[in-house]
Amino acid sequence: MSVKDMQENWEPKILVFACNWCTYAGADLAGLSRLQYPPNIRILRVPCSGRVNPQFVLRAFQRGIDGVLVAGCHPGDCHYVTGNYFTRRRYLLMQRLLQYVGIDPERFQARWISGSEGPKFQQVVTEITEEIKAMGPNRKMRDV
Amino acid sequence: MNEITNKMRKIAGEILQKGEASVVIGWEKGTFWYLSPPAFIDKVEDVDRLVWDDFCHNNLSKYLVDFKYKEEKVAIFVKGCDSRAFNRLLQDKQIEREKVILIGIPCPGLKDQDQAKTLGKEGDIPKAEKCLECKYPNPLVYDYYLGEKEELDEVAATKEAPNYSDVEAIEAMSPDERYEFWTKQYDRCIRCYACRNVCPACNCRECVFDQTCVGWIGKANNSSENQFFALTRAMHVAGRCIECGECERACPMDIPIMLLNKKIIKDINELFGEYDAGIDVDSKLPLGHFDKSDPEEFM
Q1: Residue-range definition of the domain harbouring residue A104
Q2: Is residue A144 part of a domain?
Q3: Which residue in the set A93, A140, A143 is minimally distant from B264, CB to CB?
Q4: Between β-strands B38-41 and B23-27, what pairing exists: parallel, antiparallel or unpaired?
Q5: What CATH number corresponds to the domain at position A65?
Q6: Which residues of B touch A99 (CB under 8 A)?
């Protein structure tokens, strides 16, 4: 495949950190319900959205991911009771910091998706993929 | 020879003589007249090395972490920012209050070393940038106190709301401009980790950047890894930074590190309510607790 073909056939790579108890179940439900969503996402299951170290997100951008989604249980529903409240605080800051250093806001997002929200998972993933497709590949922070 | 220097030497001598502490941490004159690096005094005859002048920038609370596992008591001199760092270390359970003797010094604001170097001894050296905005010139916690504090309290009370104009200037740029700005800054980074070594908020037993485990941190000195370092460090000191500005002063490449830290402080204030780190030992930490009514943007 030539470089030109690669540019034309470019597809975004999107990393989804899915919490084991809600979002992963939500993704599972989307699959069981035969809901179509773009195959651009890579789901990485984590015990809790609170497990997602900001370094994971940075590392993903370095290694060629075009967009990152951190998804977990709705506040109040965390399997570990308080995990996602901490996530919320941490990622409110992290999101602003990433924008401050020039990463586009679309590239890093966080959402609450519960185990029964299969359609929401489909919708969120589709939206993000479309946004990032429109923006093109991420060149910022890339380790190349 | 100023009055506070004399008092410092006297009190340090007394503390060592009585054996109240085995070491006194203060400042001494360094290689140049505009440098006052930290001094570790453990003999009574050495107390004359101690000085207090316009260049005692180092945040001495940082060095208490080195004495964490030792039995001995330590005495340190603290300015306003040092005392905030001390409180913050107490909150992180890095040190025990009983093992430290604090000698407070009211700080009228220190002078800029780089300017001093160019202007010379006779020049009118401006205050260091970090000191212009200082809200807490007086030590907040101390066992002994040297000097008068009242007048400085008045100065601090008349200070206006914190000035974030430099942060706002960057926020006003477009994402690409911001990225260009930070890339330019961090491309200079030589990863000497001076910012980390001098920072009282960086008090982990083993720093993530010292990890040898593959995968945690790249050792390459390139644009991407430097930014990774910058952002990781900014997130690690979030809620801990006491705005002593030491990172920026220690940086040999003049990277405006405080611009990152100030951005986080600004956001913490806006999102989670007014918070100044290291003021009250009993206060809740912004990233160590949560509130159910925190802003909700992730629905």
Answers
A1: 3-135
A2: no
A3: A93
A4: antiparallel
A5: 3.40.50
A6: 175, 178
